[in-house]
Amino acid sequence: MARKLMVELFAGTHAMADAFARLGWDTFTVDNDPDLEGIDLCVDICDLMPSDLPQNASYIHASPPCELWSYASGAKAPFAARNLNDSAYTEKRQQAALPIKAALRIILAQNELDHWTLENPAHGALQESRLMAGYPHVTIPYCQYGSPYQKRSIFWGKFPILWLPRTVCHHMGHPNMKESFHSRELTALERAAIPRELCDEIAQCAEDSAGRTSWTPLERWS
Question: pTM here?
Answer without folding.
Answer: 0.88
